[in-house]
Amino acid sequence: MIRYVGARLNLRGHVTQVLKMEFANANYPDSLPTLNSHLSVRSYISAYKLDSLDLQVLKKVSKCNTSEYPHVTRWIRHVTSVSGTTGTMSPVPPEPRTPEQLLAKKELICRNLQETVGEDRLEAILKERDVKIYWGTATTG
Fold first, then answer.
1. In the beta sheet, which residues pair with residue 91?
2. Given this model, what pLDDT does residue 119 score?
3. CA-CA distance, 47 to 54, in Å (whole number)?
4. Taking residues 31-49, what's their average pLDDT?
5. Would the pLDDT of 83 be above 60?
6. Cis peptide before 96 (omega within 30 of 0)
7. ∠ CA(129), CA(84), CA(65), 5° rounding?
8. pLDDT tens for each residue of 95-130
């Protein structure tokens, strides 16, 4: 079973819980209610950012039915999207794009532009991944 050990003050005076939890060694699905309660006020298991403990627990929990545990379900979706992994710890493969999809994306980016510089570079990036931002500027004067 999982237990909380206590709390301590850090140098800034903020209370931080010292969570000596053994989520990685817990027995799932028996520990899902405790995990759900823990994640009801947290985004990650032991820290304020994704760490290896989250990935270890994700690997075990993803094999369980979590439909009755909304916080665990949210956490699984969050960790999967942030880490780029599935419950089996393998990278999520990108979906292959057809030439028509690539052309449609390029046309969407280049619409209403009088001139596009670096179209070949844009096409190469679109073949690899989605573009996060495309910044177009115009000289004035």
1. 85
2. 87
3. 9
4. 85
5. yes
6. no
7. 135
8. 778 899 899 988 988 888 888 778 898 888 888 888
- As a whole number of angstroms, the distance between CA 113 and CA 129 comes to 22
Q: What is the band of 11 on the pLDDT scale with cuts at 50, 70, 90? A: very low
**Bridge partners of residue 18, in order along the sequence:** 6
Q: State the helix-helix crossing angle for 52-61 and 70-83, rounded to 10 degrees.
A: 120
2 pLDDT higher than 70: no
* Total residues belonging to the chain: 141
Asked if the model's pLDDT at residue 68 lies above 80, the reply is yes
Question: Three-state secondary structure along the chain?
Answer: CCCCCEEEECCCCCEEEECCCCHHHCCCCCCHHHHHHHHCCCCCCCCCCCCHHHHHHHHHHCCCCCCCCHHHHHHHHHHHHHHCECCCCCECCCCCCCHHHHHHHHHHHHCCCCCCCCHHHHHHHHHHCCCCCCCCCCCCC
Instruction: Give the span between the Cα atoms of 124 and 113, in whole angstroms.
Output: 19
Please, what is the angle between helix 32-39 and helix 52-61, to 10°? 140
